[in-house]
UniProtKB/TrEMBL annotation:
It comes from the Bacteria. Its EC number is 2.3.1.180. It comes from Amycolatopsis umgeniensis. Residues 240-327 form the Beta-ketoacyl-[acyl-carrier-protein] synthase III C-terminal domain. GO terms for molecular function: 3-oxoacyl-[acyl-carrier-protein] synthase activity; beta-ketoacyl-acyl-carrier-protein synthase III activity. This is 3-oxoacyl-[acyl-carrier-protein] synthase-3.
């Protein structure tokens, strides 16, 4: 596999200020703090204010990422937005973000239907744009407002998800041996995680709303089985294509679906758990943004050093999954 000379020049994150604890959820759901922590590792999550939308979080995450990269808004050549909770079906959320930022010459792309894997797909697309010369600086933003699509009466989904946005600026890598060294993507069709209504098969109407078919539905057992099988396998495939083993990888930025899933994936890989930073305990599953929250943690805290190999890996509804293996 031919490496792509692309690097992450800066990262940023935006978290809504409203902190929703497990005890707060237990006031309206048949659940408890102990039940949620034991099954998910989640203690709290953030919810977006009712008067704001996903694009607002995107803009807020973009500014610190651009600042960290030393990149002015006017110099952004392309914007890729990853979200399954777009502002509205039309127009493009990426275009809304572009206008709000004032990045008037940027190309815009939306990645929308891989759910929690959107962010990895967006990073891959951004890397290809840089590699082909179509863009010198690509702003990749992943954000989701899952509080808008989870049923307030369903503890199966309501306790898992939170709202957040993360961003990364991609540019060309000039140091030999660095960049995107390998990648792996896969999929297998499943309706075990879905939002049934709102599309052409089940258009929005009185019946679909009454039946609560516009909310996210999730089979937790299938998610566990698929994630703990496919995430480690994808990491192994991507590192092998990069000419590395998992022992060579310093940081594992994994989808923050559930603390137990992250731990099970690391155990299956045979890698110490402390190589995988965690944000799910205080943010919940933030969908497309999940891998960006841990990526930002690694970059902003200075734990990712020049020469370090790291992977970014996620799985989402569909099921679709993917892994990118970089060297900083």
């Amino acid at each position: 596999m031919t490496p792509l000379p692309v690097r992450i020049a800066g990262t940023g994150v935006h978290l809504p200020p409203d902190v929703v604890t497990n005890r707060r959820l237990a006031e309206t759901l048949d659940t408890s703090d102990e039940w949620i922590v034991n099954r998910t590792g989640i203690r709290e999550r953030r919810w977006l204010a009712p008067d704001l939308a996903t694009s607002d979080m995107c803009v807020a995450a973009a500014h610190p990422a651009l600042a960290a990269a030393g990149c002015a808004v006017r110099d952004v050549d392309a914007i890729v937005v990853a979200t399954y909770t777009y502002d509205q079906p039309l127009p493009s959320t990426a275009l809304i973000v572009k206008e709000a930022l004032g990045a008037f010459r940027a190309l815009t792309f939306d990645i929308t239907q891989a759910a929690c894997a959107n962010g990895v797909q967006a990073l891959f697309l951004g890397s290809l744009l840089v590699r082909t010369g179509a863009a010198r600086r690509v702003l990749v933003i992943a954000a989701d407002s899952a509080s808008r699509v989870t049923d307030p009466e369903d503890r199966t989904t309501r306790v898992f998800f939170g709202d957040a946005a993360g961003a990364a600026v991609l540019t060309g890598a000039t140091t030999p041996g660095t960049g995107l060294l390998g990648w792996d993507f896969g999929a297998e069709l499943s309706y075990d995680v879905e939002i049934p209504a709102g599309g052409s098969r089940q258009p929005a109407g009185a019946t679909t709303f009454a039946d609560r078919r516009h909310y996210l539905k999730m089979n937790g057992r299938t998610v566990w089985d698929t994630a703990t099988r496919c995430l480690p396998d994808s990491v192994l495939n991507a590192t092998a294509k990069a000419g590395l083993t998992v022992d060579d990888v310093a940081h594992f930025f994994l989808h923050q679906a559930n603390l137990n899933i992250v731990r099970a994936a690391m155990d299956k890989l045979g890698v110490p758990r402390d190589r995988a930073p965690i944000t799910v305990d205080r943010l919940g599953n933030t969908g497309s943004a999940g891998v960006f929250t841990v990526l930002h943690k690694g970059f902003s805290e200075g734990t990712v050093r020049p020469g370090d190999a790291f992977v970014v890996s996620a799985i989402g509804a569909g099921f679709q999954w993917g892994t990118l293996c970089f060297r900083a």
